[in-house]
Specification:
The protein is mainly alpha-helical. The protein has 2 domains: 57 residues, Arc Repressor Mutant, subunit A (Orthogonal Bundle); 143 residues, Tetracycline Repressor, domain 2 (Orthogonal Bundle), CATH 1.10.357.10. The protein contains 11 helices and no strands. The radius of gyration is 19 Å and the shape is elongated. The N and C termini lie far apart (44 Å). Keywords: DNA-binding.
C-alpha cells in the first residue's frame, strides 16, 4: 500500500477514532467527488457529510488535493490487493495453470467492481479522473493499472503462446476488463433490460461467470490460432 502524502504521523500510530475519522473522510470524499466532481466539492461539504472537523482534512491529508490523491490510492490499493491474492508468486506455470490464475485474478477484480459496497462510487471516481486526465490519473496508471495489466498480459502469454507485450494481447486483456466495467457503469440500463432490481452478489456471480466464460473461449481460440 502506498504512503499517503500530507498524512500526519499520528495517523499511523493513532487510535481507532483517528482511523475511523480518516476512513470516513476518504469514503465521503470518494462519494462526493464521484457525484459532483472535484472542483465543485468543498472541503466543508466533505467534513460535514463525514461528521468530522474541517481541520481534520488538512491534518490527515494536507489539503483537498491531498485528499483527492488519497482517495485514488485507497481505491488502487484495494484493487491491487484483491488481484494480488489470486496472482501467482512464480512465473513457472503451465498453460493450464496460467489460465486458472488469470481467471482467478480477473474474477476477483470483476466481483470487486460489481459487488463491493462502494463499487459504484469508486468506478465513478475513477471515470472522473479519466475524463480530467490529470496527475492523479497518472498515479493510478503508474501504480495500479500498468503493473497489474502487465501481470495479466504475462499470464495470457503463458496460457496462449501470444507475446505478452503484443498490442493484440494488451487489447484482449483490456476487453475482458472492459466487459465487467460496462456492467458497473451501465447498471441502470442492464438491470432494466434483465429485469433485475440491482446488481448484487448473485447478479455479480452471473456476470462474472459469463465474462470468464468469454475469457476461456478467447484463450481456446488463441491456442488454436497459434497452432496453425
Amino acid at each position: 500500500m502506498w504512503e499517503e502524502e500530507g498524512t500526519h504521523t499520528r495517523s499511523d500510530k493513532g487510535s481507532n477514532a483517528d482511523d475511523n475519522t480518516k476512513n470516513a473522510l476518504l469514503q465521503t470524499a470518494i462519494s462526493l467527488f464521484s457525484k459532483n466532481g472535484f472542483a465543485a466539492t468543498s472541503t466543508r461539504e466533505i467534513a460535514k457529510a463525514a461528521k468530522a472537523n474541517i481541520g481534520s482534512i488538512s491534518y490527515y491529508f494536507g489539503s483537498k488535493e491531498g485528499l483527492r490523491r488519497a482517495c485514488a490510492r485507497s481505491i488502487a490499493s484495494l484493487v491491487a490487493a484483491t488481484a494480488a491474492r489470486a496472482l501467482p508468486d512464480s512465473d513457472a506455470l503451465s498453460p493450464d495453470e496460467a489460465t486458472e490464475q488469470l481467471s482467478n485474478a480477473l474474477g476477483s477484480v470483476i466481483k470487486l467492481m460489481l459487488s463491493h459496497p462502494n463499487s459504484r462510487n469508486m468506478a465513478a471516481f475513477l471515470l472522473q479522473e479519466v475524463s480530467e486526465q490529470g496527475e492523479v490519473l497518472d498515479e493510478i496508471y503508474t501504480h495500479l493499472l500498468e503493473p497489474l495489466h502487465k501481470k495479466l498480459c504475462r499470464l495470457w502469454s503463458v496460457a496462449t503462446g501470444d507475446p505478452a507485450e503484443d498490442s493484440q494481447t494488451i487489447m484482449r486483456v483490456f476487453s475482458v476488463l472492459g466487459q465487467a466495467l460496462y456492467f458497473r457503469i451501465g447498471e441502470p440500463l442492464v438491470v432494466r433490460r434483465l429485469g433485475w432490481e440491482r446488481i448484487g452478489k448473485p447478479e455479480a456471480e452471473q456476470i462474472s461467470e459469463m465474462v470468464l466464460q468469454n475469457l476461456q473461449d478467447m484463450i481456446i481460440a488463441a491456442r488454436v490460432r497459434n497452432k496453425t
